[in-house]
């Protein structure tokens, strides 16, 4: 595929558009584990339920439907599933919002291959997958009616930049729905150890909320279960000014 703006050709193969064909991803130990071939093979049936046992009192299928409900795909024309992994949320949104264009976006090529393999049925004709960097997304400002990011925000190497990019590509009035790891007080010992050894990642709730407020994202729904934190934040209409500032900062990098 050739970009109409810069005339650069990007390869399409294995079911996704590769916007970073020569980019070698630098990953944390936990990301490296999740992106290995053996882990991808057992990701949905073993690894994800195992992770949910420690982080949440709810099951993954429950959160899958709850997050989709909070996003309300039937009211959206365009949705970005950021760090989509094997595409569980991407496909669930596509099923509920049949007129919704859903973009699954990730930097892990093996995850995207798996996502594409699982999304070949006709009911997923409104889905496409792209490989790119969440810290520098290739989308124009105000491109999406909703953005979701589940079980990944705490893993990004630069949380602030990732959140700024999410705010930039989200339309005013649009919803950012997220599931991440966050605690009100001192994190449990196992979480601190996992972060030290594997760079598991977590937020202090007050810090995350302060960053969302700075980006003019207002939390309208929040639900906590153990250390799992789900929230829905809506972008203020006044955030158009912020978008321009972010675009300027991006062009100066």
Low-confidence stretches: 248-253
**Count of helical stretches:** 9
**CATH H-level homologous superfamily name:** Vaccinia Virus protein VP39
Helix content: 25-40%
Main sheet: strands, sense, barrel = 10 strands, mixed
What is the count of β-strands? 10
CATH class: Alpha Beta
> Topology as H/E string?
EEHHHEHEHEEHEHEHEEH
The helix/strand class is alpha/beta
List the helices and strands and how they pair.
Blueprint: E1 12-13, E2 16-18, H1 29-34, H2 37-55, H3 60-71, E3 78-82, H4 88-96, E4 101-106, H5 109-117, E5 127-131, E6 144-150, H6 159-169, E7 170-183, H7 189-198, E8 203-204, H8 205-214, E9 217-225, E10 228-235, H9 240-251
Parallel strand pairs: 2-5, 3-4, 3-6, 4-5, 6-7, 7-8
Antiparallel strand pairs: 1-2, 7-10, 9-10
Helix pairs in contact: 3-4, 6-9
Task: Tell me briefly what this model is.
With 253 residues, this protein is an alpha/beta fold. It is built from 9 helices and 10 strands.
Report on the architecture of this protein.
Helices cover 39% and strands 24% of the residues. The chain is of the alpha/beta class and 253 residues long. The protein has one domain (27-251): Vaccinia Virus protein VP39 (Rossmann fold, 3-Layer(aba) Sandwich). Strands 1, 2, 3, 4, 5, 6, 7, 8, 9 and 10 form a 10-stranded mixed beta sheet that branches. Helix 5 (109-117) links the parallel strand 4 and strand 5. Helix 3 packs across helix 4 and helix 6 (159-169) packs across helix 9. The longest helix has 19 residues, at 37-55.
